[in-house]
Amino acid sequence: MPKTTDVVRLRVTAHRLGVRRFRLALLMIVSYLAMMTFLIYSARHTPQSPVVATDFGPAVIAVASCMAFSVILTGFFVFVRNRD
Amino acid sequence: MRIPRNSISFLLATVSTFGAGGVAYSAQSDSQIRQADFSTIVFFVVFAALTLLICVWAGRRATSSSEYLTAGSSISAGQNGLAIAGDYMSAGAFLGLSGAIYVSGLDGMFLAASYLASWPIVLFLVAEPLRRLGKYSFADVLAHKLRERPIRILAGASTIVIVSFYLVAQMVGAGELISLLFAIGYGPAVIMVGLLMIVFSTLGGMRAATWVQIIKAVLMICGSAMIAALALNRFGFSASDLLKTAEANHPNGNGIMNIHGFSQDGIATLSLGVGILFGTSGLPHILMRFFTVHDERAARVSVFYATCLIALFFTMLFFIGYGSIAILRGDATYANASGALFGGNNLAPIHLARAVGGSVLAGFISAVAFATILAVVSGLIIAGASSAANDLVVGLSGRHLDERKRLRISRISALALGVLGIVFGLACEGQNVAYLLALATAIAASANFPLLLLAIYWDGLTTRGAVVGGTFGLISSVALTVIGPTIWSKVLGLGPAIFPYDSPALFTVPLTLFVCWVVSIAKAEPEKDWQLTQPSVAQYVE
Predict the structure, then answer these.
(1) How confident is the model at residue B18, as a pLDDT?
(2) Residue B541 and residue B94: Cα distance in Å, rounded?
(3) ipTM of the assembly?
(4) In chain A, how many domains are there?
(5) Rounded to whole angstroms, what are the CA distances from B506 to B135, B501, B519?
(6) How far is A18 from chain B (nearest CA, A)?
(7) Can you tell me the distance from the alpha carbon of B251 to that of B378, in angstroms, rounded to the nearest whole number?
(8) Among candidates B88, B104, B95, which has minimal Cα distance to B181?
(9) Which of A17, A26, A36, A49 is most worth mutating to test chain B (most B CB atoms within 10 A of its CB)?
(10) In this predicted structure, what is the pLDDT of residue B16?
(11) Where would a tag sit more exposed on chain B, N or C end, judged by fewer CB atoms within 10 A?
């Protein structure tokens, strides 16, 4: 059975890790919502044109950034946790 | 071609194809497409034989419930990463997202980005504690902290509901896909897929489903890479030229490089996004994957592998989708004058494979799509069977089962779910199954995810709070989807929808969290003796 002091120490560690997790999760959610806001905004404010314009527009870059961010954050978390 | 007027319905239809193997063929089916190709049949027979061999091999090992339901937790991180990626590289993702890009450009990639963004949430919040505390289902995590019987009944009920909706969507999609690929009727197609699925899931179990997912994921990545490379080859490997040709071919011009599906209603888009973002963390067949690895280190590494592979796959879909616009639009062999593809726009990657790689590549891709359906459906059935044996039966009877009984009930449950899938699949012929998958995702986000989150990270959650909140999430998400535009207006034809949004997750997820919190703080429950000596669930996060 764990001693009271062990439990307290465990709780402190868990809370610190929990805070880190929640910060990362919030970061992901905020970045996703930012992408969504930008996409909705750009869809409403970009005039459509039949003329060929650029290769990768801002919307493509926003989607690609969100995808890349997902991979980077996942990799970062795994790297940090495996090193602990 | 104009983008569909009801943008959210279009998105939901695309979401449905993500898991359902592509369901939007019927409106444009063409006799020209309904011809079973020899190479398709050869690849199909090879794949079916291979999967059955794997099933027999795995079935010999499935002598215990842990081996049958979780492959004895002996799957490595790399294998599990491939299997998780395989769950996401469904035929629906391949066909549906490519078709969505073919129709309206970047809208399809938004969905891809949304699904990918859900994986860090899974990793940060649920993967490790789930692996450490769970054995057969996510209810194990809840039962670690809360009273077991009510929580297992609730978890079992929501799992069966989610799995059933997913299963029906898969069966209808599979029936239509196989019917098209092999030029047979819808009924025989559903029965054929259903029987294979029952044999596969009742005999082979999780190990067979995992290995088929692994093989299929590798083949799907290779096949997609081949199509994308051959499409780029047409343009001298210049992505710029490919995109410029696509823009020139599409009536929307450079508009296909922007999002349009969301321009009508931001709230509806946000709700759909919230459902996708949090729904993955509550989907039973996804959560089951974390029980197949040895420890939490393997669980988190497997999520990283899966995220990388899924991102790679979605990137190739980008080129396949835009390559379809550049190569298939205007080609009378594949599309009519208005740009609609023969057999439906979801067949864009199959047509593109035929255009750039001939019938052999098209046959190969079609067979991979079939293997995908088989593997995804088997995973769903095993998740449902696991919950039935370990949650519902234990919750209702109030006692744990011995090894033999658990294995027997799991197999009987798998058989029952398989038969249910065939019956409902036949009954739902021709139905728009978009809402089934949207509903399943919304239920997972509304009923399962809040409970898991609070059970892991909040010591104040009580059994009463979890049961009331979870029941509220389950019922509200089902009810709001039923009175939403897709079911209320389009399926049932009852006039204007009472609830204006297809996906209710934006409202039901925070409301479920709120109800859990209010009920929990309203009346604290006395801790049981063992809880006083146990570390809290949150400590297992470490």
Answers:
(1) 44
(2) 35
(3) 0.80
(4) 1
(5) 31, 10, 21
(6) 7
(7) 41
(8) B95
(9) A36
(10) 43
(11) N
Question: Would you say B363 and B40 are in contact if contact means Cβ atoms under 8 Å apart?
Answer: yes
Of the candidates A78, A58, A64, which has an alpha carbon nearest to the alpha carbon of residue B314? A64
Q: Contacts of residue B240 in chain A, CB cutoff 8 Å?
A: 55
SS3 B495: coil
Give the pLDDT score at B52. 83
Contact B340, B1 (CB under 8 A): yes
CA distance B211 to B75: 10
Burial class (CB in 10 A: 0-12, 13-18, 19+), B225: middle
**Which phi and psi (to 5°) does residue A69 adopt?**
-60, -40
Q: Do residues B503 and B509 touch, judged by C-beta distance below 8 A?
A: no
Q: Do B123 and A74 touch (CB under 8 A)?
A: yes
Any A CB within 8 A of B117 CB? yes
Question: How many residues does the structure list for chain B?
Answer: 542
CA–CA separation, A35 and A61 (whole Å): 10
Average pLDDT (A29-36) is 85
Q: Which residues contact A9 (CB under 8 A, 6 or more apart)?
A: none
pLDDT at B327: 93
3-state secondary structure of B430: coil
Token couple for B142: 């809840």
What is residue B75's three-state secondary structure? strand
Model pLDDT, residue B527 = 54
Q: Which residue is associated with the tokens 């029941």?
A: B471
- Inter-chain CB proximity A44 and B263 less than 8 Å: yes
Rounded to the nearest 10 degrees, the angle between the axes of helix B148-182 and helix B7-20 is 90
Domains of chain B: 7-55+76-541 (1.20.1730.10)
* Spatial distance between the Cα atoms of A70 and B147, rounded to a whole number of angstroms: 36
Comparing B38 with B262, the larger pLDDT belongs to B38
Structure tokens given for B111: 């969905």
d(CA B390, CA B121): 26
Residues, chain A: 84
B40-79 residue pLDDT tens: 788 888 888 888 888 888 878 877 878 888 888 889 999 9
Cα separation, B106 vs B243, in Å, equals 12
Interface of B with A in 369-398 (CB under 8 A): none
A13:B542 CB<8 A: yes
Q: How many CA atoms lie within 13 A of B515 on its CB side?
A: 23
On the 0-12 / 13-18 / 19+ scale of CB atoms within 10 A, B483 is middle
Q: Structural domain of residue A45, as residue ranges? A: 4-83
User: Given the structure tokens 């616009």, which residue do they identify?
Assistant: B325
Nearest CA in chain A to B108: A63
Query: If we measure between CA atoms, which residue out of B150, B138, B71, B142 comes closest to residue B392?
Result: B150
User: Are the beta carbons of B254 and A70 separated by less than 8 Å?
Assistant: no
Backbone angles phi, psi at B461, to 5 degrees: -65, 130
- B84 contacts in chain A (CB < 8 Å): none
* Residue indicated by tokens 């869809």: A43
